[in-house]
Structures are given as C-alpha cells and as structure tokens.
Amino acid sequence: MILIQNRILYQSSTCIVINKLKGEAAQGAQAAKTAQGKKDDIVNLPKELAKILNVKRDLIQPAHRIDVPVTGCVLFALTKPALTFLFNAFADKINNPIKKKYWAIVEKPDVIPAQNAQLVHWIETNIKINKSFVYEAEGENRKKAVLNYKVIGEGTNYLFLEVELFSGRHHQIRAQLAAIGLYIKGDVKYGARRGEKDGGIRLHARYLSFPDPLNPNEKINITADPHEIDNLWKEFILFSTTNHTNLLLDIEANFRVVRG
C-alpha cells in the first residue's frame, strides 16, 4: 500500500487534500460485509490521517463525499471554521466556487452515446442497500443531479470519459452513467459485467478546485494521478492530452517514487 504521507497533494493549517486509494473511507466508515459475505476491511482515512498529523480524530472532517471504491482527490478540513467555510462553498450553486472533474472508464456499449452531453436526473437513495436510483422527473425524496460528460477516447472494449460534477449526490456519477447504459468498469452494483480483482472501480477524482479558507479570493487547484498505471490507464492518459509521452512518463516516474 502507498503510504498516506506520499499521497498528500496539498496541506495548509486549515485543510489537506489526499490522493485516496480504493478501499479507503473518507467519511470514516467501519468494516462491512461484501456481497459475497466476506469481511471487507475498509480503511478509516480520517483516523489514519489523525495519527500522521498527530491531532484529534474529530478535527479531521471530509468536506465532500467520495465513494469507498473510488480513487483520487479528497479534501479534509482541519479546523471547524474551515469545515464551515468549505461546506458553504460546496453548497453554493449560484457562484459555483467548486470544480470537480473525474476520469471514468466505462464498458463500451453497442451504441456509442453522444460525445458530449449534460445529464440531468433526479436521484433517490436507498440507505438500507446503499444504492441510488435515477429518475427522469422530480418526485418525493428525489434530489436533482447534474453532470457533464465528454468521451475523450474509444478503445476496443471501453470508452474513456471525463466527467464534470455539478452536484454531489450519493453515487451520482455511477448511477447517472448507468442510467444511460454506460457502466463503469468493475462497478457491479450499477450494472458492470464483472468486478475488479481488488474490489475497486475505474472512477478517479482527477481534479478539484476550491477557494482557500485562508484567502477566499484565491483558488487552490489540485490534480491527482491514478495510482496504478496499467494498460487501461495508459490508454486513457494518451487520449487525455496532446502531450502524450511527457505526461505518461511523469506519472509513471511519480508512481515509481511513491511505490519505492
């Protein structure tokens, strides 16, 4: 496992951004049962951060939601005023001070969807089964969910998507993409053919931009690379930039340093 110390993307006196691994719970969830009935050892990320930073566990609070099998940028507040400030920033849908972008690898459908689209749905969450359901119309207990996606590449068996999230609903990207027939690789809960060997899914929080709690007029912009650069992520990276070789070499070099 890559040490948390080597995955700190940003740190100040008020907040910290971690490049999260699959299997880590930003909300501090405890071990649970998998669909196969086996005990799933979920890492309590706030608890582990508290040990490293030598602070009380209660001081470290996630500023936003990110699912356990998802990797990438996750922002934690380190003070109560910072938590309030960041909560308000994430809730501000008028000025939209927060920018969130994800990379998703989805199973290639029989009919290729529009290359660019905005998805607007209403989501209802069943907490008992930890799953969200997507509807085309408003209704009781349903919350509006909006995202944009862009197909940036097409492989033999998969499509490579960049997703910009405008709301933060439970399992939003997973549920909305599944609703239009785009199933994230490994995400059997939302229709994928099979799971990943390690239990993760191919959804990565690539980019996060947020106002600085210490200076609200300044933006902090964070980019997180995937942790394990296998052939699928290599293919994604090649599609994602015109500077193919340099970006891939930089990411692989950083990965080797962290792993070493």
Give a verbal description of the structure.
With 260 residues, the chain is α+β, with helices and mostly antiparallel strands. The chain has a single domain, classed as Pseudouridine synthase, CATH 3.30.2350. The strands form 3 sheets. Strands 1, 2, 7, 8, 9, 10, 11, 12, 13, 14 and 15 form an 11-stranded mixed sheet that branches. A two-stranded parallel sheet has the order 3-6. The chain has a two-stranded antiparallel ribbon with strand order 4-5. Helix 4 packs across helix 5. The C terminus is likely disordered.
Secondary structural class:
alpha+beta
Distance between the termini: 11 Å
- Please identify the top-level CATH class: Alpha Beta
Biggest beta-sheet profile? 11 strands, mixed
The percentage helix is 10-25%
Q: Can you count the helices?
A: 5
How much of the sequence lies in strands comes to 35-45%
CATH fourth-tier homologous superfamily: Pseudouridine synthase
Under the CATH scheme, which architecture would be assigned?
2-Layer Sandwich
What are the key terms here?
two-stranded parallel ribbon, single chain, Pseudouridine synthase, 11-stranded mixed sheet, 260 residues, 15 strands, disordered C terminus
Quick structural gist:
The chain has 260 residues and is of the alpha+beta class. It is built from five helices and 15 strands.
What's the topology here?
Blueprint lengths: L7 E4 L3 E6 L3 E2 L6 E2 L5 E2 L2 E2 H9 L7 E2 L8 E7 L2 H12 L7 E9 L8 E11 L4 E5 L7 E12 L3 E8 L6 H8 L23 E10 L2 E9 L7 H10 L3 H16 L1
Parallel strand pairs: 3-6, 8-14
Antiparallel strand pairs: 1-2, 2-8, 4-5, 7-8, 9-13, 9-14, 10-11, 10-12, 12-13, 14-15
Helix pairs in contact: 4-5
